[in-house]
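Lab notebook: predicted structure, single chain.

Context: the supervisor wants predicted structures on file for every construct in the current expression panel, including those that have not yet been purified. This is the next one on the list. No modifications to the sequence; it matches the entry in the shared construct table.
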Amino acid sequence: MKKITDNAAIMECIDTYNLQSYLDNDLLPISALCSFEKDEHLIRLETPSEYLYFLLEGNVRVYSYSSDTQNIVINRSQPVTLLGEASSLWELMPQSNVKAETDCLCLGISLKKHRGLLQHDVRLLQNICQILSYRLNSGVNLANSLTEPVEIRLAKFILENSLNQKFSFQLTTCAAILNVSYRHLLRTITSFREGNILKKEKNYYLIEDTNKLEKIAENLS
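Prediction complete. Output recorded below exactly as produced.
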C-alpha cells in the first residue's frame, strides 16, 4: 500500500465521489488516499485492518476458504464501496480476505486514530446498517446461486461482463468468482463454442448467439 496525503487530491476525491454524504464528521482532516497494486491485499483474514476504506477506483474480490482450502468468492466490489465496516471498525477478526483484482485507489481512515469518532458518527452508522442489510441479502442470493449448474452461472456472468458482444474477462479470475475449477470452466466454455454460442478470438470471446446464452442463463430449454 502507498499512502498519499496531498490535501488537494483528497478533497478532489471527496467532492468527486460525494463521500462527505456518508458521515457527519469532517472527512478531510481524518483521511488519506491509499493505492494498491493488482493482487495486493487490502484486508486479510483474521487480521483487523488498520483502515476503514472507501474503494474509489478499481475492483476487489472478497473471498474466504473452504475446508479443502479452495477459494470461495463471497463478493466482488466496485467503486464506490465501503470496506472494513463489518469487522475492522469494531476490532473484530475479519472472516474474509479483500484482494485487489486491478490497481485500486481508496480513501482510508485510520482506525487506530479515529475508531471512536467513527463509532459515534450517526450518519455513518446509518449508512453501514443499510450496506450490511444489502450484503446480507446478497449472501442469500450467493448461497442460492451456488446450487445452480456451472453453465447457468457462466452464462449469467458472460452476459453481465460483456461489452459489444465481447467477453474478455480473465478466465482464472472468472473461475474463482464462479467458485469452479479452471478446468471445469474451460470445459463449459468449450461446450458453448461447440454450440455456436461463443467464438474464440485472439484476446476475447465473441458472443455469436445472445438468445441461446440468455436462455441458458434463465434455465430455459
